[in-house]
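ARCHIVE CARD
Drawer: 12
Card no.: 0347
Subject: one protein chain, sequence and derived structure
Cross-reference: see card 0346
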Amino acid sequence: MAGTIALQHDRWALWPPVAMILGAAAWMSTPIAPASWIAPLVLTTCGGLGMAIATAPLSGAGRLRMAAAGAFLLIAAFALGAVAGGVRSEAVAAPRITQELGPARLTGWVLDAEPGATRPRMKVLVSAIDGVNSPPRYVRLSVNAVLSPGRSIDCLVLLRPPEGPMAPRAFDFARRAWFQKIGATGIALGRCRPTAAPPPLSLQDRVMLFTTAVRRDLTESIVTASPGEGGAIAAALVTGDRSFMTDATNVAFRDSGLGHLLSVSGLHMALVAGGIFAALHFLLALLAPIALRYPIRKWAAAAALIGAAAYLVVSGASVPAQRAFVMTAVALGAVLIDRPAFSLRALALAAVIVVLISPESVVDPGFQMSFAATAALIAAFEQPLRAPGPVLAPGLILGGLDASWRLLSGMLVASLVAGLATDVFAIYHFQRVAVYGLASNLASTPLISFVIAPSAVIAAVLAPFGLADIPLAIMAGALDMVAAIGRVFAERPEAVRPMPVAPAMAFLLAVGAIIWTCLWRGPLRWLGALALLASGIVYVSAPKSVLWADGDLRAVVAQTQEGWIAAADVRRGSFAKGRMGGLAGLSAAQTDKLPPPDICNRDVCTWRTPRDRQVFRVYRQEGLVAACRTDAIILSDVPVDDAYKARCAPAAVIDPVDLAQKGGLSMTETAAGVQFRRARDDAGYRIWSGKLRRIDE
């Protein structure tokens, strides 16, 4: 055991950042906000005790003393993450509407435009809203046609507060909106009109609008220089603007496991910074007088850092892009101070910075997947990276084959490790796994590394001279090939494996397994495999929900004795039906083909669960007569009074009053009875918690 402990001498510093992440995640996830004084008190008390014990001039019991100090400091780090969450949630507080509003006149400036599920969406910096004294800072609108970012607009709108999850485990937009200062969402009635309003008074807002307009101009110039799908993908890679991409291409990238290429994240920041670093370092190395006298590696790192900062601004400075910039800046900073650029300590420092600056990121799938993949890759390759370089086979041909084999095998291992590390989060957050993600990434990596990334760097260098068209065309052509690879894999019927919702315990065990395996040294690190096995056992053995319904009962997806059925509103329930089917572990194709209940009329539908309990979906008052059965489960569009409940003795009643309070639901049945989980259980009663009703955009 002493030898195992000795192996961890440079690993102990990695655990406080993990505790900080857990503290921030716990603070963000609790249904009720802890008292504001608890976390600061724990931080100061445990931090002080830990430092006092660690520095006390005591003799003997050294290991016990350091263990006690470490335990207190870990608790303090956990509390620091919680403090960061509390401070951040108050710091971003901004006005928002509390009830549905409109039609009302809204004026402001377009900040961003993106495709939506049914109509495009715009993010608007608000100037004024008729009848609202303190308008939200930002509003997200579904519109018939978008206007160019940076333009001032005038719209007639219907607005509503940002809404919480439509069902348990569904996406909580209200929380994200709070931290992005989006105080309302809604639809534009008719077209928004451009106006000639003067720019906002705030210098920050003017700079933001200017960079937004520059970003849009850059996007359009890329698309103009490289028309076609490749140019649209190139624009998405460079600026993060996907508005020129077709829905089919977006779906192909998502279902093939290549969707991470389209979100400005660590990959893009690494390509930009790495490309600048490699190009400048290579050019400076050719100049012997400079290369022999000056630290050209540090010069290249400084230039790469400046380039990454510029790319952050150009790409829109989204939260994932900011997170990626922090990670890149830490790596380049390590080069500047002669430390290893890629190490778990550098990653831990990046995590600390992200938690302190943007603690809400820790519950975001992007943060979790990017840090898990990076940690797994560093842990897998840290020993080979520290070892002396391999001796290649002698001779040009044999040496080339040997180098190629090492490169390809390294790519295979890297893709496999990153894929395994991120699949846990894909299952938990998205209930899906891209079956061919490994194959598609392996097939596209050579194009990205040897064609797309160099072309992007060359285009950036030549752009100020108006000579970027040729490298952009090469980049677009390679991206067309990547899109073709994505379509080949995405169009296979088994490309996406839907998965039922994972229990929280299974997720926590899997995350713990990843963290332990990456951070611990020695044979005991493989205890992570046991934790991963336990996670799988919990996932497989946990009871699966047999019914999912959104907060308006527009879509009810349920399991019967014969299979799955859907009771959905054909006019308004298509989006909700798809989401409920996804939570149930069904693919989009399976959800689309779900039949209605066998017994159904305009008043009521009914079916039996796998354990022979009867469920009634009531649409009209007359349907309550048929649903008056002892131990029935009633999902009703009309209110159900106490007299009816006393007379009919149903097992459960979900009606508009109940839905307004608790939101959508999932139902699990066992031999002992049924259990309901509600959207309010997930949304909680936090400062950002929104209403639980949702209107299709």
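Annotation on reverse: The chain is about 55% helix and 15% strand. The longest strand covers residues 101-114.
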